Amino acid sequence: WVRWSMPAPGSRCLPSEGRCSPRPSPATTSRPGRAPRPGPPACPKPSPVSSSPAGGITVVTWNVGTAMPPNDVTSLLHLNTGKTNDADMIAIGLQEVNSKINKRLKDALFTDQWSELFMDVLSPFHFILVSTVRMQGVILLVFAKYYHLPFLQDIQTDCTRTGLGGYWGNKGGVSIRLSIFGHMVCFLNCHLPAHLEKAEQRKEDFATILHMQQFEGRAASGILDHDLVFWFGDLNFRIESLDIRFVKYAIDSNILSQLWEKDQLNIAKSTWPVLSGFQEGPLNFPPTFKFDVGTNKYDSSAKKRKPAWTDRILWKIKSPSVGLGAGGRRPSQGVLSVSQLCYCSHMEYTVSDHKPVAAIFAVQFASKADKPPVEIYVADEWSRPEQAVVRYKMAAGFHRSSWDWIGLYRVGFRHPKDYVSYVWARSDDGERYLEKQLCAQVTFSEEVLPKGKGEYILGYYSNSSSSIAGVTEPFQISLPRSEEGSSPTDSSGSSSEEEDDSTLVLLAPKSRSPSPGKMKRHRSRSPSLAKFQGLILRPSSRDRATSRSPSPQSRRGLPGDIPTIHLPQEELGRRGAKALELGQAATSQEGSSFYQTVREQGSTRRVSADTPLSRADPRNLGLLPALRLEMIDQALGRRRESGDQGYRCRRMSPTSPPGCNTSPKEGSSP
């Protein structure tokens, strides 16, 4: 497979030489506050890009059987191959992830362990989580190299339940669709009904998923309207007619071709109209189901299930002769070509009764977007605070929002909300800059800049599209450390021991989300990626309508302000003088004395301010904006002033959902 031929954003491509020159660097020797008011900053003019993009896409499917994640998945993702033509995008579909009530409650506050594992493994290779969607135990994740993020637009998710007649989400499909260099691509992860005799039910469920999943906008409203569709998952197709002894003999003798003609999916591709146009590579690997857990031996239980290729990866290219698609959309001009370079199973993973399957594709796009929606210009190095000046230019037609922001990311960040610091991308003359294609300018204050040396990336986050619309190449920040210690926003060093102890209190011993030990270098600054509305990397297409299939991110977030845990005054009255004395003692303590109410057997108690749980800063634990803990004197003071008015709506950080239709104030802080 081949790398994207599009150069990294911020670089200039010289057509005559076929190479990239360093990005333009604006002069930043003077403070922006002393710059003359008239005249916007000048932007260097980037050279046009004339090459055609081609890229490698890796697709992985794995029924994990409610197991805990293994220690390493590097070989599964085909990383560290020693080649220079690694994949540029990776789609991972999981089935039967543990979705018991206790696990789902934990995953509501923190990212699930499987997603954490893949982010931790992929972030050192510059892969960023583009989007994720979960329906009970079915999860889909899409990653991409950070320099491709501005060219991945129109990201939407959807899910459809088919279990118990459509009332249960243990079976069904989840999807992520997006525009890649102007081409509409859809990833569909399915878990279809099991057992040999349920072939017709699998056909009906797949047709239901295709019919129910609809996306917003005129471009590719249905799954099959996309230019390219990847369909994968535990499809549960079995081998018909043949006896289990012959199947095992064919496997042991490596004559797998004698099993192909009896494979239900191979038969269905030629007889079911709904599968018309879907392609699949040769099944040159042993059946991936069913194994004894912890071994490479097929089922030895009393049921002795027949081995089968239940885990599959297929693709479909939209025919250019279709003409007008849904909504009057024409297929992309030219021919979209896809070549499968690898299709294999991984026998080395034994935590489940299924073996994972991976496929690597080389995709050649016929046309592309010429430049990112937002171009960012920055100096090669920030060695002084006054050099932290960022200039950016928005392309014509870009939908600017007053909630857009520019994030500062350490190289190796995991998702768009995993920033070190940020600044609001707002300007009084923003509309004029957009209309006249001029450069706007913002400045990072010294207080939010990380101290020490390190490599960082700037990214323009578009609130309207919930994606990064522009990035820079890595640049250096080398600011001297203060005598008192590192800045609170400095992520160049390890977290304090107090943070780690506080995190341990809230997490199970085997949790990977976030582990203070192994994962402290990649601790997320964003809470759960798959539960709360303000934390979802890309909203579901069902967010503004009644969902036919309750995806976790299709549930509406908490409206209005962020909820605060406090002890109501009525409770204080019932508790009597003892409770008031406890409140006064807590109020008199110096510093940030956080407290929390805990309900046990119908009674309510408060956690002491000197416990690790009460000392935990929710911003360090990744709980915002789902939970805000306030100092007791602030909470009680507001209760005394107004008992029923509630808290005024305010925007705390880019990860917080906007609770009112007001623009951020100049003095607002993270």
UniProtKB/TrEMBL annotation:
InterPro entries: Endo/exonu/phosph_ase_sf (IPR036691), IP5 (IPR046985), IPPc (IPR000300), SKICH (IPR041611). Residues 53-370 form the Inositol polyphosphate-related phosphatase domain. Transmembrane segments: none annotated. The keyword Glycosyltransferase does not apply. Keywords: Cytoplasm, Hydrolase, Methylation, Phosphoprotein, Repeat, SH3-binding. Residues 19-33, 485-495 have a biased composition (Low complexity). Gene3D superfamilies: 2.60.40.2840, Endonuclease/exonuclease/phosphatase. It catalyses: 1D-myo-inositol 1,3,4,5-tetrakisphosphate + H2O = 1D-myo-inositol 1,3,4-trisphosphate + phosphate; a 1,2-diacyl-sn-glycero-3-phospho-(1D-myo-inositol-4,5-bisphosphate) + H2O = a 1,2-diacyl-sn-glycero-3-phospho-(1D-myo-inositol 4-phosphate) + phosphate; 1D-myo-inositol 1,4,5-trisphosphate + H2O = 1D-myo-inositol 1,4-bisphosphate + phosphate. Belongs to the inositol 1,4,5-trisphosphate 5-phosphatase type II family. Inositol 5-phosphatase, which converts inositol 1,4,5-trisphosphate to inositol 1,4-bisphosphate. Also converts phosphatidylinositol 4,5-bisphosphate to phosphatidylinositol 4-phosphate and inositol 1,3,4,5-tetrakisphosphate to inositol 1,3,4-trisphosphate in vitro. May be involved in modulation of the function of inositol and phosphatidylinositol polyphosphate-binding proteins that are present at membranes ruffles. This is Phosphatidylinositol 4,5-bisphosphate 5-phosphatase A. It comes from Nyctibius bracteatus.
